[in-house]
Specification:
Length: 270
């Protein structure tokens, strides 16, 4: 139950991070005009974002203009566009995958190992989205600070950190926490054997009681001895002999002639 509650917390934290990343991507407040030195006119404020430039005056609503050319943008701005879009895509896809791996959902029932692997994959995707958001935000912030202290630039060219950068840093922290929760809470499951190979310790055990075997001797194997009790004689195995029917051969009887003529005549007389 603790893991289920932790998964819900990770889902909420990651969802907050996703909303923050999406807001930071669309907001034009990445670079804000710095009011220092000679540039002390507070009636007009200029914002520079990933997709547009905006001007705001005291008595006029904010007016924005989309960038005309993609190639005219600075390298950090072009990289920030791609990385922020990747962060939104990875985080959103990771949350959808995490829904299938949570215990409170009916997806992948009866297979805790598959659910654990799904949560680990979703946590890794959310962490990847966190770094994709943290890199452009930190890169842009570093460039702004470096240009602010550049002595070759005039005061009108200097910029300050906008609200979108702070939202991006906070969103990265939420995404990092959510990714770690999904990755760590999935590893705290019971690391037992595969449910397909369960061993039941309290299985019923039936002892086998051997029964006495009664010996019935063959009547032909017992004989009485005049001086002692009857004894048993082990008879060797002899193959059964099938009765053979032998028909007597019919021999032809014939009289062979004698070599003596007197005997021949006597036989003829008989």
């Amino acid at each position: 139950m603790a893991n289920g509650a932790l998964e819900i917390v990770g889902m909420c934290v990651s969802l907050i991070g996703l909303v923050g990343v999406a807001a930071s991507t669309g907001m034009p407040m990445w670079r804000v005009t710095a009011f220092i030195g000679e540039n002390i006119i507070v009636m007009e404020t200029r914002y520079e974002g990933l997709w547009m430039n905006c001007f705001r005056q005291a008595s006029i609503r904010m007016q924005c203009k989309v960038y005309d050319s993609l190639l005219a943008l600075s390298p950090d701005l072009q990289a920030a566009r791609g990385l922020m879009c990747c962060s939104v895509a990875l985080t959103g896809l990771g949350l959808l995958i995490a829904i299938a791996g949570m215990k409170c959902t009916a997806c992948i029932q009866g297979n805790d190992r598959a659910k654990r692997m799904v949560l680990i994959i979703s946590g890794c995707m959310i962490l990847a989205g966190c770094f994709c958001c943290l890199i452009p935000v930190s890169w842009t912030g570093h460039a702004i600070i470096q240009d602010f202290y550049n002595p070759l630039l005039i005061d009108a060219q200097r910029r300050e950190l906008g609200e979108a950068l702070y939202i991006g840093w906070v969103s990265s922290a939420f995404l990092f926490a959510g990714g770690c929760i999904f990755t760590c809470c999935s590893g705290s499951l019971d690391k037992g054997p595969d449910p397909r190979y369960k061993y039941t310790r309290n299985a019923p055990y039936v002892a086998y009681q051997p029964q006495p075997v009664a010996y019935h001797p063959h009547p032909h194997s017992v004989y009485s001895h005049p001086s002692g009790p009857p004894s048993f004689i082990e008879q060797s195995y002899q193959p059964s002999r099938q009765p053979s029917f032998i028909q007597p051969s019919r021999q032809q009887s014939f009289v062979q002639p004698s070599r003596y003529p007197s005997a021949r005549s006597a036989v003829a007389y008989l």
